[in-house]
Amino acid sequence: MTLDERLEALAQSMEVLQGMQMDNEKRFAAADERIAAADERIAAADERIAAADERIAAAEERHDREMEDIRREARAMRTDLRRAFALGVQEARNERRRSAALDEKITQLAAAQLITEEKLQVFIDCLRRGGNGSPAAH
After folding, report:
1. Cα distance from N-terminal residue to C-terminal residue, the chain
2. What is d(CA 104, CA 80) in angstroms, rounded to the nearest whole number?
3. In whole angstroms, what separates CA 116 from the centre of its chain?
4. Is the full-model pTM beyond 0.70?
5. What is residue 78's predicted lDDT score, i.e. its pLDDT?
6. Is the pLDDT of residue 31 over 60?
7. C-alpha angle with apex 117: 112 to 123, nearest 5 degrees?
8. Domain residues for 91?
9. Is residue 73 part of a domain?
């Protein structure tokens, strides 16, 4: 091969290499654009994640406050229920005592009624017999 042919081949090789270099630069530029777009999407996603984290933190704080309110109300309710049950038991005991006292009074009243009936019967019998022990004329 002559020197001119070699130069011509070298020039063609240089043109091919230059074309390849331009293609690579275009591909790198496109890759850089894709990377920049991906970075923007990542930044936007990071912002959304940060906003979501803030909402989650606020929701957890609200949840904790509400749970504490619920626990406080439950404690108060348990206290009220204990007091109500104690009062109910006390009232049931008092009612049993009153009922027993009433039963005793009714028993006494029934006994007095029997005595009264017996005395009334004796009195009626006395009136029928008359003043001197003989039966009265009707």
Report:
1. 180
2. 36
3. 67
4. no
5. 98
6. yes
7. 125
8. 1-98
9. yes
